[in-house]
Every structure is written in structure tokens, then in C-alpha cells.
Amino acid sequence: MTIIKYAPDSHQKAQLSDIEEARLASLSDQDIDYSDIEELDDEFWEKTQIVSPDLTQPITLRVKQSVLQYFMGNGKKGYQSRMNAVLESYVKAQQNKISDHR
Q1: Rounded to the nearest 10 degrees, what angle do helices 65-72 and 79-100 cross at?
Q2: What is the pTM of this model?
Q3: Which candidate, 98, 77, 101, places its Cα nearest to that of 10?
Q4: Helices then strands (H, E): number in the chain?
Q5: What is the dihedral of CA 32, 33, 34, 36, to 10 degrees?
Q6: Which pLDDT tens digits describe the chain residue by residue (102 residues)?
Q7: CB atoms within 10 A of CB 70
Q8: What kind and span of H or E run contains 99?
Q9: Which of 25, 43, 65, 85 is deepest in the core (most CB within 10 A)?
Q10: Inter-CA distances, 23 with 16, 26, 33, 37, 97, Å
């Protein structure tokens, strides 16, 4: 017997059948079980802040082969996002240095 293990792709939205979609659409708020969702109190909302999405811009960038291989080492998918996260972290650290010196 062959065993096939399936791991859902976290970047892909789960597909529902037409019957499942219709069943979900017919539910009223009272029919939905929210017991496993923590209620957000006033303290939570006092600490929130609006964050505007930071748009990405496609560019051509030359990087050392060793750097690219490192970021692709965890899998080809998402390596650009990982590289962008490191660059963004660096920029924020530099901005904090500038604001600390003022």
C-alpha cells in the first residue's frame, strides 16, 4: 500500500464545494460557534494602530551567488520575501539609530 501525505499550501485559499459554500452562506451569526475565539476587550483596541500596507516594487538586483543560495536553501518558494524581510529589518534598525541621535 502506498501512503500519500498531504500538506496544504499555506499560500493557497482552501477550495470549498458549491454545497459547502451554500451551507456557510446560509448560516446566521447565531449559528456560528465563536467559543474558541478570544474576545477582544477595550485594552486590546487601545493598543492597536493602523498600519498601511507597504507596496512592493519589482526590481532587478544583483546579489552574490552565496547569498542567493542561502535564502533559497529553505526552499525556492518565498526566498524573495525572506530577503525583503532582512532588508526591511536593516532599514528599520538604521532609522531607529537616526531617531535615537536626534
Answers
A1: 110
A2: 0.47
A3: 77
A4: 4, 0
A5: -150
A6: 667 666 666 666 677 888 988 998 999 988 888 888 888 888 888 888 887 777 888 899 999 999 999 999 877 888 998 999 999 999 999 998 887 776
A7: 14
A8: helix 79-100
A9: 85
A10: 10, 5, 15, 21, 54
